[in-house]
Write a structure and sequence with these properties.
The complex is a heterodimer of chains A (574) and B (292).
Chain A lengths: L2 H5 L6 E9 L8 E8 L4 E6 L5 H9 L1 H4 L4 E8 L2 E2 L5 H4 L3 E4 L12 H12 L3 H14 L15 H13 L5 E5 L7 H18 L2 E5 L3 H4 L5 E6 L2 E6 L1 H11 L6 H8 L9 H10 L37 E11 L4 E12 L4 E5 L6 H8 L7 E6 L2 E4 L12 H4 L2 H10 L15 H13 L11 E5 L7 H16 L3 E5 L3 H7 L2 E6 L2 E7 H4 L9 H6 L7 H8 L5 H17 L1
Parallel strand pairs in A: 3-8, 3-9, 6-7, 7-8, 13-17, 13-18, 15-16, 16-17
Antiparallel strand pairs in A: 1-2, 1-4, 4-5, 9-10, 11-12, 11-14, 18-19
Helix pairs in contact in A: 5-6, 5-7, 11-21, 15-16
Chain B lengths: L12 H4 L2 H17 L3 H17 L3 H25 L6 E8 L3 E6 H27 L2 H8 L4 H30 L9 H25 L19 H20 L5 E2 L5 E2 L3 H12 L13
Antiparallel strand pairs in B: 1-2, 3-4
Helix pairs in contact in B: 2-3, 2-5, 2-9, 3-4, 3-5, 3-10, 4-5, 6-7, 7-8, 9-10
Amino acid sequence: MSELAIRRGVAPALAVEGLTYSYPRSSAPALLDVSFEVAPGEFVLLAGRSASGKSTLLRAACGLVPHFHGGEVEGRVTVAGLDATRVGPGELAAAVGYVAQDPETQVVSTTVAAEIELPLEMRGDAPGDRARAVEEVALALAIPHLLGRAVDTLSGGELQRVALAAALVTRPRLVLLDEPTSQLDPVSGDELVWLLRRLNEEWGVAVVLAEHRLERCLAAADRVVAVTAGRIGFDGAPRGFLEWTRGDDPMLTTPAARLFSLAEIEPLPVGVRDARRTLGEGSAAPTTVPHPGKGVGGEVRPPSRFRRPRDRRKDPVALRAEGLWVELDDGSGPRDVLRGIDLAVAPGERIALMGRNGAGKSTLLRAAAGLVDPAAGRVAAERMALLTQNPGDYLVRERVGDELPGDAGRAALRAVGMEHAIDADPRDLSGGERQRLALAITLAGRLDGDGVPGLVALDEPTRGMDRGRKEDLHALVDRLAAQGAAILIATHDVEFAAEFAERVVLLGDGIVIADGPSADILSGGWYFATEVARVLDVPGVVTAEHGAAFLGGRASDFNRHIWRKSSEARGAGG
Amino acid sequence: MRSPFAYIPRRGPLQSARPGAAVAYLGALVVVAFLYSNPLVLLAAGAAACLAGRLAGARAAVRAALRMGLGLALLIVVVNALVVDRGETVLARLGDWPVFGQVDITLEAIVAGVSIGLRAAVTMIAFAVYSACVDPDRVLRSLRPVAARSALTATLVSRLVPVAAADAGRLRDAARLRGPGAAEVGRGPLARRLLAGSLDRAVDVAATLELRGYSLGGPRGERRREPSRFDVRFYAVAAVVLAVAIVGKVLGADGFRTYPTVQIGLGPATFAVGAVVLASGLAPWRRGGRRV
């Protein structure tokens, strides 16, 4: 099939037929008899749990599997008329662009302009054509101001856009993205998804996007392909996908769909606008299909569950920062990353530390752990255990037991529920297990009898995690908090924050811009708000369970009070 | 944390010039440092390199290079004073030392050490300014017509070395954050872990290069000529500095002798060469933009 025919929409941008693939030295196949097509100009969302085969499928579509990774392959993958199982990624480079999860690993040049130009240079394009293509793709992605920058001075969001620009500069007909928003704050994540949608509509680029946080991109997708244990579990429209999750994999559903399911409202919404329209039209109809997740009235926690008046100045503290200033120099001159932070964390308190990329979240945790010195003010933490963003940095030996020897090590393993893996190689553990092991390493020797450290801090622990693994992490956090540890988690994941945190501290440009109960903070905005909060726009209602109780007329007196206040406020405002 | 010597794109004349022009300009200062032993000329070359770096916005690089260069110069002075017993002006007799034997500190050995140390410092400052102001991508791109794959490999090294340094910093932080009950991490395990991580990164980068079409034969696009109105300035300054330095050398401007007694030539020729070399440090100067 010619390229022209493909551009006219005659042939699919991607066709996978009976693909079965096993990685080298792997006993089980990663993909099993997978077949699906992506039409030119289509926006396809690839859903699935961690390790279900999404990334492998994307790598097969760009030729890395099997040409780079090796392994055994059966079936056929056709991209722009080329069989990707026969020709390598180099030959496919003009037809398909690929953006991996970690942009740091896919940037090979020193400056942004050189990075974007490299694929064109490899292809042998003339200098004038290269300059024009770089300029155009930079304009399309709104990054012309970055062209002269060094890549190691870019933020995660900027680096992700540069990687996307390098993938798009050859004008491929198909672009594949593997969890591109996992390292981005809610603002940058939403911007990236809608940027992809705009490129998809204006340039006619077919997009295949693998994501865990489906609530961010379901509304932008034309179609959803769900991968379950290496097989295609579902292939159809977004609304059909939500119906499919009811019976087949409730972990993949979105918060808004769970809200509607729990409240027995039909049809399930594919996004915030869809949900608000349904609720606004009053077309909500009871459903006879019960959701296999949490039932209405089962475990509804009113927003007040964490509220307890506290005089923080008199309470004992696990962390106290007073007028904390931290100055860092990234090579372009010193910069105040934290500017006069005042913060107190009480023992047993569970706090989400939020804010956009570069707001100072990680620096605050590092200052509390003594990794960076304050320029002014002071910070003190009670027996703090900090787990930084990459758990792999803690794993240096080839046996779990060698990382954690002696009674103290065993106690730490028990505290995180990992004593069964004492003889395992850390590299053979799953992502969630590696994280728990790294946490055990930071806890070892800090456990006081059956107690725990005064403060357990985690930096972006839910990156790349599916909902099941987040629930495991939530259970671990509950366990540590129940033993008296204060929990401080820096995260971009508003849904996870709504689940685990009683208090949210929102940082912006190095200062605390909001600090209060999670139900208040996560329902009072647009970007730093849960999907349910954006749907209902009711102060204090942030989770599907709260929302369902509210919609079902089974809200607590507190919720009724909140609703009354909200209505009054709207009446006064209107 | 970025290295002070890391390249930072700026809009200054030195950064805008083609790599050849920048290398010619900074290389001329290094040539002067190796051509001359007279401390006055060496000081002028060092001051010119510092001035050039400062005008190009590479203050951090100049500061770091000064610290390192002067430290190295001091070390050279001390070692030279201890191991060289030539010279007639004995400042101190330190007696018999186990390795050095009879140690006499002479003024001549100290001055000779100062000259060698200054030469090393000038070279380090010039390289620091080069590193902070000349885009390695442009340098390597200019080499691609000669050796495409080697140039790309060098690009990767220049990109991955700072990444490995950042990885090492993260691993050190993680080692500090281990609980007191966890196994201690010595330098050996940390180095092995860093190596394993670097290999993983190398595999990722190799995959990216495959996706960019590297297997098709490496970069083969025609070289883009990026215009710069400052090239002529730097080539001209380099030519003038070299010409003056060579002519001055022939005319005896490098009048400098250390043994048996110190004789430093401070004639008009030496001052003229020093003045020209010092003035060459102004080459990266740029007038402020005109207001419309």
